[in-house]
């Protein structure tokens, strides 16, 4: 007599995940504490999607639920595969990648934050959370935590808990939300750096030569649209090569270059390191 095939019981959270995936929503399991499962040993210090700081989007090529948001997938074979089986048995919740499906979640963590949203943001689909609400908008954007008291913006390169479909009609992502993550430029920190003491022949002839060189260097740094680190280093190297051996280059000139670099997002520490490395390369 043929024995009946055992019926495989699908965990409730995996069933929810499969339903979302079938609708095109990238999902992943969360363990207790609303955190993703730890990276596997093969991927512990890197991301399949890019560098360890996760600034390059996924997708995660690892078969295990690694890399938090980058592991979110709509592939049912991955979700039900043996590599994820243990995770689903231990899962405390289902999460999804909002930006991966073109959504932004405004996470309102307490009643005052909800009240602020009601006064400030256009009505949209809302989902109740343990302490507040998720307001979900159509449209993706960069994510940021603590954009104001009790308010996080979750979209690209983050995950959000799935707490149900919510209520209300979803609205288009408003500029009011986008503006929440626009950061003011960091204040330029004063610097004190070592400048060459001179001793070589001065080629400047007039202060105009040096001033033109510093101004051109500032412009080169400010105009950089990519590879800012490399641009800053190469510019420092060029300035020191042309003006650093006769003693005319002062700390004030260096401070101007540092200020230009910091307006492009460089830290004072990065500037100091680049300056020191350029001096070392030139034997100063």
List keywords for this structure.
alpha+beta; 10 strands; six-stranded mixed beta sheet; elongated; 284 residues
Any chance you could write out the topology, listing elements then pairs?
Blueprint: H1 12-22, E1 27-31, E2 35-36, H2 76-80, H3 82-90, E3 93-96, E4 103-108, H4 111-120, E5 125-128, E6 133-138, E7 144-148, E8 151-154, E9 160-161, E10 171-172, H5 175-178, H6 207-222, H7 228-243, H8 251-263, H9 268-281
Parallel strand pairs: 6-10
Antiparallel strand pairs: 1-2, 1-3, 3-9, 4-6, 4-8, 5-6, 7-8
Q: Can you put this structure into words, describing what you see?
A:
With 284 residues, this protein is α+β, with helices and mostly antiparallel strands. 35% of the residues lie in helices and 14% in strands. Helix 6 runs antiparallel to helix 7 and helix 6 packs parallel to helix 8. It is elongated and about 80 Å long. The protein starts with 11 loop residues before the first helix and ends with a helix. The relative contact order is 0.10.
Global mean pLDDT? 80
Inertia-based shape:
elongated
Order of helices and strands: HEEHHEEHEEEEEEHHHHH
Secondary structure class reads alpha+beta
Strand residue content: 5-15%
Helix content: 25-40%
> Terminal Cα separation, in Å?
89 Å
């Amino acid at each position: 007599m043929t024995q009946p095939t055992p019926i495989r019981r699908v965990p409730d959270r995996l069933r929810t995940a499969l339903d979302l995936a079938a609708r095109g929503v990238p999902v992943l399991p969360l363990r207790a504490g609303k955190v993703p499962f730890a990276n596997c040993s093969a991927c512990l210090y890197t991301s399949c999607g890019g560098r360890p700081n996760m600034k390059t989007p996924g997708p995660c090529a690892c078969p295990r639920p690694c890399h938090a948001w980058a592991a979110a997938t709509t592939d049912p074979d991955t979700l039900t595969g043996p590599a994820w089986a243990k995770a689903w048995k231990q899962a405390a919740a289902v999460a999804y990648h909002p930006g991966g499906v073109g959504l932004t979640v405004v996470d309102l963590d307490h009643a005052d934050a909800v009240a602020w949203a009601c006064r400030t943001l256009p009505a949209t689909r809302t989902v109740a959370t343990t302490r507040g609400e998720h307001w979900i908008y159509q449209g993706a954007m960069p994510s940021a935590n603590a954009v104001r008291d009790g308010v996080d913006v979750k979209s690209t390169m983050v995950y959000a808990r799935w707490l149900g479909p919510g209520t209300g009609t979803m609205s288009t992502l408003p500029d009011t939300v986008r503006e929440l993550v626009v950061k003011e430029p960091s204040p330029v920190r004063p610097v004190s750096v070592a400048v060459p003491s001179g001793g070589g022949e001065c080629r400047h002839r007039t202060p105009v030569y040096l001033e033109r060189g510093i101004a051109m260097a500032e412009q080169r740094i400010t105009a950089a649209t990519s590879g800012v680190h490399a641009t800053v280093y190469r510019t420092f190297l060029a300035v020191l090569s042309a003006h650093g051996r006769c003693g005319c280059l002062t700390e004030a000139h260096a401070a101007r270059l540092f200020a230009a670099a910091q307006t492009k997002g460089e830290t004072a520490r990065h500037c100091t390191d680049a300056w020191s490395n350029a001096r070392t390369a030139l034997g100063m």
